[in-house]
Amino acid sequence: MNNLPEIKKKLREEYRRRRDAFYNQLDAATKGLAFRRPPSPLAKLIEQSDVIALYSSMGSEAPTARLAEYCIEIGKTIAFPAVTGDSPLEFRQVDNIELLETGYQNISEPGADCPVVRPDLIVTPMVAFDRSMGRLGQGKGHYDRSFEKYPEASRIGLAWSVQEADNIPMQPHDVTLQMIVTESEIIQSVNMTS
Questions:
Q1: What is the structure's pLDDT at 194?
Q2: pTM for this structure?
Q3: Model confidence at 4, in pLDDT bands (50, 70, 90)?
Q4: Residues whose CB is less than 8 angstroms from the CB of residue 194 and which lie 6 or more positions away in sequence, other chains included
Q5: Residue 105 to residues 9, 119, 164, 166: CA-CA distances in angstroms?
Q6: 88: how many CB neighbours lie within 10 A of its CB?
Q7: What is the dihedral angle through the alpha carbons of 148, 140, 109, 159, rounded to the nearest 10 degrees?
Q8: Contact (Cβ atoms closer than 8 angstroms) between residue 114 and residue 146
Q9: Residues with Cβ < 8 Å from 4, sequence gap 6 or more?
Q10: What is the rounded CA–CA span in Å between residue 57 and residue 118?
Q11: How confident is the model at residue 192 (pLDDT cuts 50, 70, 90)?
């Protein structure tokens, strides 16, 4: 168990490389169309939710801009996270993704003047995932703390298929996802309620 932080660090390095290599070989049209419209199970969850928390994708992460546009088109409130120290993320409402500004670690986030909202559905980025719904994030625990703060919110991971690992080592504070959406597949928890 003492080795776990080192194991996770090596997994992050490996799966970032895999994700970058996969993303870099995609043509511009494919990048633009990926995750454009949510697949049926995710669309149903979005439909049932009032406030959708997305993330600002960076680099080779699964993109969320088109998903944000879709949510706005169907009249949903969208929110993006703002990092406030080691606290859970603060999800702030935005009416347009153009309103995001550079924040924590150069990630686009809503400004302090944007209203804080309570998400019904949280779409999270990840470095890697496994079939038991384990998620390997950046290692700071922001999303795990947020999942604990909002236990009633649906937890959805967005990733490229090459980010799938055989096994993500989990620690007591790690929170599993309920659904993982890739460009080619939807993986759902057996406990996922609709």
A1: 44
A2: 0.91
A3: confident
A4: 41, 44, 45, 48
A5: 18, 23, 25, 29
A6: 18
A7: -80
A8: no
A9: 169, 171
A10: 21
A11: low
